[in-house]
Amino acid sequence: MEPVLQTFELTKRFGSKTAVDHVSMQINRGDIYGFIGRNGAGKTTLMRMVLSQALPSEGRYELFGQKPVPELQQRIGSLVETPGLYSNCSAKENLLRFGILAGAEAREADEVLDMVGLAGTGSKSAGHFSLGMKQRLGIGIALMGHPDFIVLDEPVSGLDPAGIQEVRNLILRLNREQNITFLISSHLLDELGKIATRFGIINGGRLAEELTVGELQERCGGKMRFVVNDPEKAMEVLRETMDPSHVEQRDYAILVQEGTDAAAVINRRLVEAGVDVSSIARESGSWEDYFIERMGR
Q1: Integer Cα distance of 70 and 52 in angstroms
Q2: What three-state secondary structure class fits 255?
Q3: 258-267, long-range: CB within 8 Å, 24+ apart, which pairs?
Q4: Domain coordinates in residue numbering, the chain
Q5: Per-residue confidence (pLDDT) for residue 66, from 0 to 100
Q6: Mean pLDDT per 10-residue section of the chain, whose length is 297 residues
Q7: In whole angstroms, what is the distance from residue 37 CA to residue 52 CA?
Q8: Cα(141)–Cα(113) distance, integer angstroms
Q9: d(Cα 42, Cα 29) in Å, to the nearest integer?
Q10: Which positions ≥6 away from 273 have C-beta within 8 Å?
């Protein structure tokens, strides 16, 4: 495993308040790392430190196995809180302006517009974009300069279900096709559960636990529910790729034993076989209960 980010006892104090308390975490190349914690738990503060937007009070961190010199920082894209867009400019003009800061070439703008699904917006100003379009443009800005690692703080906050799905699919596609590693914070536990490969749970500034999707599934058990348009075809596809005893059909719902494969992997397998998936959910709240217990009540 090749580390993209490692923190060593990273700590940040504001006066007498300790916002991040001796956090040692590791994110490896190819991870979609879900960073989970309540508001005020220290997620954004830690992100700002690894983006060189805030200085640590103690501890240190490494990027790509090295001391975080400016050349390595340029390999990171970020969207922390609401993107500060030029509202009177088009999507492409925004990318060109922010691309200068990232040292990006102007020709990248059209490529990035296509990646984030905004190639058809033309001269429409960003001020007239929907919230989902603005978030995708924010991710597009983070993509300028061909980063290897992208940090996203609450990227689906305030979005409607369609906007959330757009951003979720974009992250999965960039991870799969561009091999981009992600650090993503969110309070929407179910959404993170659909895309993350590893999780870090922070409570009161301290890292309570790090675990993979597989480890989480083993501890929680339960089943994933996929509502599909062709359950017979879905059953055929899944039984060919996993233990048939782990798959069950209930009308138009397919239940899969957790711990078999990640939801994103199963969803992709079905879609590639021509099966439409209208929803993904868990049969129980066990994942959420697990996270809430470790985040602190």
Answers
A1: 9
A2: strand
A3: 258/217, 258/220, 258/221, 258/222, 258/223, 258/224, 258/282, 259/214, 259/217, 259/218, 259/221, 262/197, 262/213, 263/193, 263/194, 263/224, 264/172, 264/194, 264/195, 266/224, 266/226, 266/238, 267/194, 267/226
A4: 3-214, 221-295
A5: 94
A6: 94 97 96 92 95 95 93 89 85 94 89 91 93 89 92 86 86 92 88 89 94 78 86 94 87 81 86 93 70 75
A7: 21
A8: 10
A9: 23
A10: 233, 234, 237
**E strands of 37-180, at which residues?**
58-63, 76-80, 149-153
Q: Are 137 and 116 in contact (CB under 8 A)?
A: yes
Q: Which fold has domain 221-295?
A: Alpha-Beta Plaits (3.30.70)
Rounded to whole angstroms, the Cα distance separating 43 from 284 reads 27
Please tell me the predicted confidence (pLDDT) of residue 293.
77
User: Rounded to an integer, what is the distance from CA 193 to the centroid of its chain?
Assistant: 10
Spatial separation of the C-alpha atoms in residues 153 and 183, rounded to whole Å: 8
| Of 77, 127, 82, 81, the residue nearest 102 (C-alpha) | 77
* 0.85 exceeded by pTM: no
Task: Name residue 276's beta-bridge partners.
Answer: none
Rounded Cα–Cα distance for residues 83 and 89 (Å): 14
Separation of alpha carbons 157 and 141, rounded Å: 18
Per CATH, the homologous superfamily of domain 3-214 is P-loop containing nucleotide triphosphate hydrolases (3.40.50.300)
